[in-house]
Design a protein that fits this description.
Length: about 120
């Protein structure tokens, strides 16, 4: 089992920045690929970004390219999502996820999930 706890969400204005953190406990963090997803009310859960076990490879959805950066610190068992130039359409509940298969952009590719942290961006 891997337990994931997200933090760092909040209410911000358009153009502001936030950094989300997700800390893992349980099994060895460095053995897992990590990802961030988000879900807005009435919408499906959407892939945001992912990072491989070593941190050498990252990918993200086009809508956040140039604004969001995913990173990880295996010594701290933590994955981060740095979000800059936030837009109202970024408003959602943000989840981190861990998986032992390859980098995936679908929720089914991840086994463990956190409870989510809310990000609200006002215009």
């Amino acid at each position: 089992q891997v337990q994931l706890v997200e933090s760092g969400g909040g209410l911000v204005q358009a153009g502001d920045s936030l950094r989300l953190s997700c800390t893992a406990s349980g099994r060895t963090f460095r053995n897992y690929n990590m990802a961030w997803f988000r879900q807005a009310p009435g919408k499906e859960r959407e892939f945001v970004a992912a990072i491989n076990r070593s941190g050498a490879f990252t990918t993200c959805v086009d809508s956040v390219k140039g604004r969001f950066t995913i990173s990880r610190d295996n010594a701290k068992n933590t994955v981060y999502l740095q979000m800059n130039t936030l837009k109202p359409e970024d408003t959602a509940l943000y989840y981190c996820a861990a998986g032992s298969e390859g980098i995936a952009t679908m929720p089914g590719g991840y086994t463990y999930w956190g409870q989510g942290t809310q990000v609200t961006v006002s215009s």
